[in-house]
């Protein structure tokens, strides 16, 4: 029986396969070419670059020589780099939950509310996301300046929002301002997709508004929340433009985020090899962190 | 309106041309039959107008100007293009402090090959030291300069009965008086805590030497005696509240300066143009310029330099000879110097250029903004008093940023000025060595 079917089917198959084999590749080719050229190749080049160390005699041109893993060893001994990772972890631990709780709350409120007011606020909360981060940085930079800041003028305080102690929080504020509305829209869209019979069933069971939110809406938001968290983790690891725009306005440490430090290593110190090594490490770290979170979220769901 | 302005510019350019044309040095000869296109990266406004005169004199050379806005943008792009091996322009503009870092990439042509050393005599002496530190290889042609002088509000000084300080002791006394009489509302001056070159220019005026080539390596002394003296002096003023710490070029600063809350400052020669541009509606005509205060009262004015730039030729240029000619012409021909001053406020590095009538025209900004005072004469005097031997190191960009870190700690009271400079020296030294430099 099995032998029979095998021989019967085996005959026409290879021909069909051969004809079919090329077709998907043909259609995939434009994407694959672009993918290789703009993604795989730069990654490979970065890894290749990261194996070279800068040699300078002091006078005359510098040379890049093969250094194996020397740049990676240096990265793990570089307190500035390790501190920058520490900064971003601290930042993420505070900012991501704060922003997502806010986004969930806003999404729930907008989902409950009806009419034109809801539509207006939906747009209003989303609006900051449409402002490019460089512009947002400039805008907030002005609001943060010690003597001109409206906060200081109203309260009469002399808070320096750009001082190195609170700059991380000032950046967190800009990021939250920019991204809360964006996450809110994603969560709101997920709520809109919930079939109304689920709500009706809950109502028939006698659930009040709070119970409906707590036991129906929030659990249904879970997958979307997982997605927004992953995006937020990746986004946080990449924070660059906000601190970079604020740099000329006051003292912002070189290593406020890993990306500013990486940028300065390349653009200021001209050390492409070390910068590439930092970039590779940062990518691995981001991958690890999001993977870790996904795993944690998955097991958390099962138990 | 625009046309009228252009006509005036043109007429001025022409008059400068006719009156000072004889002063132009003979430029290197190039093959006039060879068609050449040069790409030039520069942040000087209106450079295309300047270049029109060049292409008239050299019809076979066409010049393409690219303005990347200057500062980090230009440097990052140039750094990347030099690393990539293609995409760099023929000629680029680089500030003196950042020149060694680019020379270090090996991407700059040694212009002595094309006879640049013959033109040394036409430049203000200290500027040549900036582009040719060992006196052999020439990495760039000096373009503009930023010698230091004092700008001040004449009305405010008069209001508080303070004379223009001639020494730093007088300046400290005046700062205390202004602070006291105004109940802390007005500060005589301001400490730019995030601009190392501003601080270094003050120490430069006092003979401070931060970097020095030594055989096959370098000597770094960021904590030199002049630096310590200058920083301790300013820290004392800041601590007493006699001067502010408003960030340079910030909205805060212009607001305070326009509102009369900051009565003076130390600015490079390119600074007054910024005052005229940023404060045109407030306090116009009330500002004046004076010589930098001195540590000891004397007849010769000693000054330092902040900023200023040069033109390099990159090794990617297919026409380095023509590019060198252009760089020389741009900074030595009186028509180009005049246009660069009018359009971009570039204070020339050429010795003859300092005497050009257009610089001293008091009916035009920035002199007009400064109550029709001939401020260029003040700055020309400052330029003559800049120490010739001052050098920068290739890792200066790192030192530049690390300075901000140490000064931030100092202003928070965590480091004394001496400790801040020692930490600046130690951390920068460690980084320079990590980057592979031989440095003591």
TrEMBL record, chain A:
GO terms for cellular component: plasma membrane. Residues 85-293 form the ABC transmembrane type-1 domain. One of its GO terms (biological process) is transmembrane transport. InterPro entries: MetI-like (IPR000515), MetI-like_sf (IPR035906), UgpAE/MalFG_permease (IPR050809). It holds the Pfam family BPD_transp_1. Its main location: membrane. It is found in: Cell membrane. The chain crosses the membrane at residues 25-48, 88-112, 124-142, 162-182, 220-240, 272-294. PROSITE patterns: ABC_TM1. It is a multi-pass membrane protein. Keywords: Cell membrane, Membrane, Plasmid, Transmembrane, Transmembrane helix, Transport. Belongs to the binding-protein-dependent transport system permease family. This is Sugar ABC transporter permease.
TrEMBL record, chain B:
The keyword Amino-acid biosynthesis does not apply. The keyword Signal applies. It holds the Pfam family SBP_bac_1. Keywords: Signal. InterPro entries: Bact_solute-bd_prot1, SBP. It comes from the Bacteria. Residues 1-22 form the signal peptide. This is Extracellular solute-binding protein. It comes from Deinococcus sonorensis.
């Amino acid at each position: 029986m099995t032998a029979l079917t095998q021989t019967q089917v085996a005959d026409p198959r290879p021909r069909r396969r051969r004809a079919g084999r090329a077709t998907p590749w043909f259609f995939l080719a434009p994407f694959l070419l672009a993918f290789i050229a703009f993604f795989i190749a730069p990654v490979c080049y970065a890894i290749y670059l990261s194996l070279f160390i800068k040699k300078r005699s002091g006078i005359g041109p510098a040379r890049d020589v093969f250094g194996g893993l020397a740049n990676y060893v240096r990265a793990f001994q570089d307190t500035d780099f390790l501190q920058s990772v520490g900064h971003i972890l601290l930042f993420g631990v505070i900012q991501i939950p704060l922003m997502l709780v806010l986004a969930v709350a806003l999404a729930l409120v907008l989902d409950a509310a009806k009419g034109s007011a809801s539509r207006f606020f939906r747009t209003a909360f989303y609006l900051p996301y449409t402002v490019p981060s460089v512009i947002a940085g400039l805008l907030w930079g002005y609001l943060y300046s010690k003597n001109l800041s409206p906060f200081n003028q109203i309260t009469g305080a002399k808070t320096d929002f750009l001082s190195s102690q609170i700059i991380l929080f000032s950046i967190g504020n800009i990021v939250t301002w920019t991204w809360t509305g964006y996450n809110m829209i994603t969560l709101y869209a997920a709520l809109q997709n919930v079939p109304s019979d689920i709500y009706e069933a809950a109502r028939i069971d006698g659930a009040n508004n709070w119970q409906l939110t707590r036991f129906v809406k929030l659990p249904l938001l879970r997958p979307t929340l997982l997605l927004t968290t992953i995006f937020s983790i990746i986004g946080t690891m990449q924070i660059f433009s906000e601190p970079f725009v604020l740099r000329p306005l006051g003292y912002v440490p070189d290593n406020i985020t890993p990306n500013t430090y990486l940028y300065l290593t390349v653009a200021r110190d001209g050390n492409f090899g070390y910068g590439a090594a930092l970039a590779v490490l940062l990518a691995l770290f981001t991958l690890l962190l999001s993977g870790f979170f996904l795993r944690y979220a998955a097991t958390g769901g099962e138990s | 309106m625009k046309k009228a302005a252009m006509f005036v510019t043109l007429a001025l350019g022409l008059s400068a041309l006719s009156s000072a044309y004889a002063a132009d040095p003979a430029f290197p000869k190039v093959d006039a039959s060879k068609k050449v296109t040069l790409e030039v990266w520069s942040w000087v406004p209106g450079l295309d107008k300047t270049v029109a005169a060049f292409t008239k004199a050299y019809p076979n050379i066409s010049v393409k100007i690219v303005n990347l806005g200057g500062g980090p943008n230009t440097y990052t792009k140039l750094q990347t293009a030099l690393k990539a091996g293609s995409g760099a322009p023929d000629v680029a503009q680089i500030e003196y402090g950042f020149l060694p870092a680019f020379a270090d990439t090996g991407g700059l042509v040694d212009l002595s090959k094309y006879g640049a050393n013959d033109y040394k005599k036409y430049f203000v002496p200290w500027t040549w030291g900036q582009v040719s530190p060992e006196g052999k290889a020439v990495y760039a042609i000096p373009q503009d300069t930023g010698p230091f002088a004092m700008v001040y509000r004449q009305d405010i000084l008069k209001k508080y009965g303070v004379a223009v300080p001639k020494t730093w002791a007088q300046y400290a006394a005046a700062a205390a008086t202004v602070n006291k009489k105004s109940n802390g509302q007005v500060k005589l001056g301001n400490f730019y805590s995030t601009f190392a070159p501003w601080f270094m220019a003050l120490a430069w005026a006092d003979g401070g030497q931060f970097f020095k080539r030594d055989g096959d390596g370098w000597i770094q002394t960021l904590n030199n005696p002049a630096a310590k003296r200058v920083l301790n002096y300013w820290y004392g003023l800041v601590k007493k509240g006699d001067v502010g710490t408003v960030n340079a070029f910030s909205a805060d600063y212009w607001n305070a300066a326009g509102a009369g809350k900051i009565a003076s400052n130390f600015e490079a020669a390119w600074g007054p143009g910024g005052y005229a541009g940023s404060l045109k509606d407030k306090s116009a005509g009330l500002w004046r310029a004076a010589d930098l205060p001195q540590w000891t009262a004397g007849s010769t004015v000693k000054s330092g330099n902040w900023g200023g730039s040069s033109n390099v030729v990159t090794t990617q240029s297919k026409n380095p000879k023509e590019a060198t000619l252009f760089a020389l012409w741009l900074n030595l021909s009186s028509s180009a110097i005049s246009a660069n001053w009018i359009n971009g406020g570039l204070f020339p590095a050429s010795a003859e250029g300092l005497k050009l009538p257009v610089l001293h025209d008091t009916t035009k900004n920035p002199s007009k903004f400064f109550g029709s005072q001939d401020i260029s004469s003040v700055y020309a005097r400052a330029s003559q008093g800049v120490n010739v031997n001052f050098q920068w190191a290739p890792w200066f960009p790192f030192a530049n940023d690390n300075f901000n870190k140490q000064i931030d700690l100092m202003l928070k009271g965590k480091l004394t000025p001496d400790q801040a400079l020692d930490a600046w020296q130690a951390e920068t030294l460690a980084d320079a060595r990590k980057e592979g430099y031989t440095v003591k």
